[in-house]
Amino acid sequence: MKELRVFTFTIGLLSLSSATYAQPAGRPARVIVQGVDEARLVTLRGNTRPEANALNDRGIVPDGFPLNHMLLKLKRSPEREAALQQYIDQLHDANSPSFHRWLTPGQFAEHYGVAQEDADTVTAWLKSHGFTVHGVQPSGLTIDFSGSAGLVRSAYHTEIHNLEVNGARHFANMSDPRIPAALEPAVAGIVSLHDFHPQPLLVPRGQYTDSGGRHTLVPGDIATIYNLNPVFAAGYTGKGQSIMVLEDTYLYSTGDWTVFRKTFGLARPYPYGTLTQVSPAGAVTCTNPGFQGNSSDPGYRDDAEAVVDVEWATAAAPNAAIVLAACTDTTTDGILIALENVLNGPAASLPSVVSISYGEAEASNGAASNLAYSEAYQQAVSEGVSIFVSSGDEDAASADGGGVSTHGIGVSALTSTPYNVSVGGTDFGYVADSVSASTYWNATNSNTYNSALSYIQEIPWNDSCAGALAATFLLGPGFTPLQLCNNAAVTSPTGSAHFLLNSIGGSGGPSGCATGTPATDGEVGGTCAGYAKPAYQNGLFGNPSDGVRDIPDVSLFASNGFWDAYYLTCWSNPDTNAGGGATCTGPPSSWAGFGGTSVSTPIMAAIQALVNQKTGSRWGNPNTVYYSLANTEYGTLGNASCNSTTVNKTSNTCVFYDVTEGDNDGVCSASSNGTLTNCYGPSGTYGVLSTSNAADQPAYGANIGWDFATGIGSVNAWNLLQNWP
C-alpha cells in the first residue's frame, strides 16, 4: 500500500431614500378571518427533531420547565409572497426601473409583512394561554415569547421531554405542535421547542503522520492563489465596507485578531481595518453571550469558529470593518436572533455582506426553522444585503456530522435557500496528481510567511476513503473506493488509515427537505420537498434539470491538511481540551490550524465586499451575477482553458476555475435502516454514498462546468472585479 502524503460598525451603505423605492400596491390583507376555536386543531408538520424518539427519551420535563424566547413564525399571504418575489427579481434585473432600489427595513415591514390585525390576533392568543410576549418584529413575521413546558403542552398539544443523545443531555418536543385551525393561514410554526442548534462548520487540522513538510496558508498565500494582489494594488481593500460574521459567542481575545494582522503584514499597509463585537438589539431579545469557549461547554468549538471567521475575513478585505454579531442561544439559536434583529433594525446599521459558518441538515432543522432562515435571507437581499453561508463539511451527507453516513444524501438548511451564496470547499490537487510541491510553493517564506507562487490546481475537498483520488493514490490504478474503505488498515480502529472512515469534505447536493415532513430518523423522504430551482441556476452547463436548488454555488480552498495544506489561525484560548493552547507568541507554524467551508465562506464574503467597493453598490444576491458570468465562461460545452488542472497558473482571463477532478463521495453504512438506500456497496461492509441503489452512481463527482462537488468552481478575484457588470 502506498502511503498517502497527508499533513499533519462602520457600514458601507448606499442611499435608501424612499424616493428611489417603487411602492407595491396596497398593504398586507388580514388572513385570519374566523374566530379561534380550541377544539378545531391543525398540525404544524415537519417540526419534530429526529432525535426525539423512544430510544433517546428520558421522560417528560416538569410543567414548570422554562422555555425562554421561543420564536413564532408567521407567514405572509401567497399573494404578498408572490409580490415580494417579483420585486426581488426586479431588484436584480439591470433592465428594470427597480434595479438596486433596495428596501429599508421599514419599507419591508410595511409592504411585505403580515397584517397588523393578524399579528395582534396571534399575540392575544399567546397571552390568553399565559405566555409572555417580549416583542414582535415590525413586519409581524416573528414573535418572541416565553413560557413553561406546561403552557406549551396546553397551547400546542405536545410534550417536552428530556433526551440523551450520544451521551449529551437535551430536551425537545416529542410530536409536531398543533394550533387552532383559525390561526393556520397566518402561522408557519415555532422555530424550535428544543435545544439543538446549528453547528460550526470548521475542522481542526488533521493529526496525520508524515515525515515530510506541510504547507500552512496565510493571508499572503490566499492573495496570490486567488489573485487578490492586483485588487489590493488598485485600491480595492475593503475600505468603507462592512463584513458581518454571525456567531453565538464573543472571542476569547480580540487581541488574537490584532496579532494575526500584525504577523501576516496586514496592519501597517491597511490601517483602516477594524474589529467590533455587538449583540444587536431588537424585537427579539438578544443578550451578550460573552465568551463561550471552555471544553466543559458543549459549544466550545464556537469560539474557534468565531476567531477563524474574523481573521480570514480581514485577510481578504484588510481595510474592511469586521463586525462580529452574536446573541446568546435560547430555544432559538443566537445566529438567527442576531440576523433577525440586524435586518429589522435601523437602515443605517445594515451591513452589505454577511458571513455564516454554521449548518444543520434540512431534514433535522424542521420546517419552521427552515422557513425562518429562508425568510431572513429573503428580507436581506431585498435590503441589498448579501448572505454567504458555508455549504457544509460532511461531503454529501449533511445529516451525519462527518461520520459514516446513515441518513443518505442531504444538505444544510442554512445554505440551501435560493437567497444566499452557498460556499463550498476545495483542496489542492498536486499531490494526488504526483506533481511536485515546488511547482507551486517557494522553498522559503517571505517576511510575512507566505510562499505560494501562483494559482494552485484544485480538487474537491474530501478526507474520506470514499474519494476516488484517495483510492487510486493509496492502492494504485484500478482500485476502487469500496476496496479502500473495506481495507483492514481502514476498518480497524487501530489501523494506520482509520481516519479515512468518514464523510468529511466540502458539502454539496440538491435541496430535498426544506418543507414537509422527513422520513424516519431524519432522512430525506416522506413528504419532504426541496426549494424550487432559482432562475439563475437554470441552463448553466453542468447544472442538472432536477427542479430544485442545488449547492454549492462557488468554492474556495477549505482543506484541513488532507493532501498537504491547511489554514493558520491565531487562537490563544488556553484550554487545550477545547483544542486551544497556542499562545501565538511562537512561529506561526505552531499556531492552531483549521479547514472547513467555514474558512472559505468569510473569504468569499470579503471578496464580494471588494466588488461592492469597486462598483459603489451593494448587490443583494450576487448569485445572479456569478451565474451570468459562469454562463458566459462555460457556454454550452465548458471552457477547457479555465480547467483548474491545466489552466495557465500565472496569467489567464478566467473568472472561475473549473474543478474537474475528484469528488465529494462519503462513506456510508450499507445496512443503514436495513436497506441499501443511498449506499452503494455490499451489505455488511462500508459503502460509498450514492444517488441511488445503482452501483454506477456515487455522489458526487467533479465535472466540466457546474457540479455538486464544487459548484461553479473557485474564483480569480481580479478577473471577477474586471468582468463585473
Describe this structure in words.
This protein is of the alpha/beta class and 725 residues long. It is 23% helix and 17% strand. The chain has 17 helices and 30 strands. Strands 13, 14, 15, 16, 18, 19, 20 and 23 form an eight-stranded mixed β-sheet that branches. Helix 8 (301-316) runs parallel beside helix 15. The longest helix is centred in the last third of the chain and has 19 residues, at 597-615. The radius of gyration is 24 Å and the shape is globular. Residues 1-22 have low confidence and may be disordered.
Provide tags for this entry.
globular, 17 helices, 30 strands, 8-stranded mixed sheet, alpha/beta, 4-stranded antiparallel sheet, 23% helix, 725 residues, disordered N terminus
